[in-house]
Amino acid sequence: MNDAAIVFALTHLLSLVVAPVVLVAAGIESGQDVPFRVLMIAGVAIWVGYGGGSWWVSRAKGQGIASDFGVRCSVAEFAVGALLGGFVQVVVLPLLYYPISYFVSTDPSQQAKELVDSVSGVGDWALFVVAVVVVAPLVEELYFRGLLLRSVEYRFGRWVAVVASSAIFALVHLNPILLPGLFVLGVIAACLTLWTGRLGSALSLHVGFNLTTVIILGW
After folding, report:
1. pTM attached to this predicted model
2. At what angle do helices 158-171 and 179-196 cross, to 10 degrees?
3. What residues have CB less than 8 Å from 68, skipping those under 6 apart?
């Protein structure tokens, strides 16, 4: 628990320092649209913190992420997880947000659309796909369903771990409209991790979820 808390705190402290420096260095002023490449550089601190921190803790106090978290999975398992991620995106989330839309008039995909709008050119699109479909799922799963989930489970039990890790995962995205959907995604990923005993299933779920998002928004 202490290691998970330290990694979380240092990650976001690093982000608070790095992101403004990157924006100033790029000449971005308040209210100005931020190019995608600048956004990615500004967000590298989060990836380094979550991914690097989880790797370091596992290496220093365990047997490495492959053994401790079970990152590996078979091709068949990856395919099933990815398809499940797509199903969550196109079926589960619309059903979840349907009753919510009666009370809140908003588009949960607005933030993702704004991110896509900042992408221009083949190079940016290649970077976007790699960042969203590969890097983001990997580093987020290493921390939230790897280090954090297992730390909370060890201290408080599996169901507290599922709820707590999923809630924190949803909250750090800093978008109230996305909270329900990300919480559900987190719960499914956490349950898969505990059920299979490996992180690979949750990683493939996250990859499929994000890939489906990219396909829908980029179509």
Report:
1. 0.91
2. 140
3. 58, 62, 146, 150
Tens of pLDDT, residue by residue over 22-78, are 878 877 777 667 777 788 888 888 999 999 999 999 888 888 887 888 888 888 889
Query: Is residue 72 within 8 Å of 146, Cβ to Cβ?
Result: no
Cα 1 to Cα 83: distance, rounded to the nearest angstrom: 32
Secondary structure (H, E, C), 55-83: HHHHHHHCCCHHHHCCCCCCHHHHHHHHH
Other CB atoms within a 10 A radius of the CB of residue 116 amount to 18
Structure tokens at 151: 């730390």
CB contact at 8 A, 205 and 191? no
Is 168 in contact with 144 (CB distance < 8 Å)? yes
Structure tokens at 28: 């971005």
Percent share of the chain, pLDDT over 70: 98
